[in-house]
Amino acid sequence: MSQKIFLAGAAGAIGRRLVPLLVRDGHRVFGTTRSTARVADIEALGATPLIVDVFDADALVRAVREAEPDIVIHQLTDLSSGLEQDPEAARRANARLRREGTANLVGAAIAAGAGRFVAQSIAWAYAPGPTPYTEDAPLDVGAEGARHTTIVEGVVPLERAVLDASGLDGIVLRYGQLYGPGTWTQTPDGASPLHVDAAASAAALAIDHGAPGVYNIADEGGVVSVGKAMTELGWSPAFRLDRSDSAITV
């Protein structure tokens, strides 16, 4: 069934792979960016571009209300502003986006009457324990240093905002370490690697599959269990975009 999708982060690594999937499935997609330079890219992918800053809560509410989406998808991160030059500043910026930006986006989704909210989280936030980690394993809320910034200041408030939202079916996708087109590496890396196309596929499936809750999304054989996503979302870590999908190399 065709639906209206508000995709926050349409020009990001996952967003660029996700838009063609949504368009292919007949959905009308409104894709956000903060940069006018990305407007043409989003249009080329087949979405309607919207320039909005997730930290501007009033403007965000207006944008989401105008789009009147059935589904809101959150694929925003803020790691492009100096991860190599100033890692701690980049982590703080990304944690703020996850904490404050997610709260604003959830509020806008509720104000616009959306029924479902799909958000990106991470699969390496679990507390030390037996592996593979399932979704009910505890997060590492006692982490210190850089890991505290990422998990306690970013991931935990993001997930709570989504899963506790009144009137929304909230789904959290805990992504592994991305590889593939538009990411940091072209080959699997990390304890729970994930191809960017498979990440996009999980978000597309979560539109109308799966009960509200948390799903690990990563390659099989890593430190997280992905059986729940494979069973309930019908997801496969082997998914790759077909060359027939339009504008996938943007």
UniProtKB/TrEMBL annotation:
Domain named NAD-dependent epimerase/dehydratase: residues: 5-197
Q: Which SUPFAM superfamilies match?
A: NAD(P)-binding Rossmann-fold domains
InterPro entries, sorted = Epimerase_deHydtase, NAD(P)-bd_dom_sf, NAD(P)-dependent_oxidoreduct
Q: Which Pfam families match?
A: Epimerase (PF01370)
The species this protein was found in = Sphingomonas morindae
Q: What is this protein called?
A: NAD(P)-dependent oxidoreductase
Segments spanning the bilayer are: none
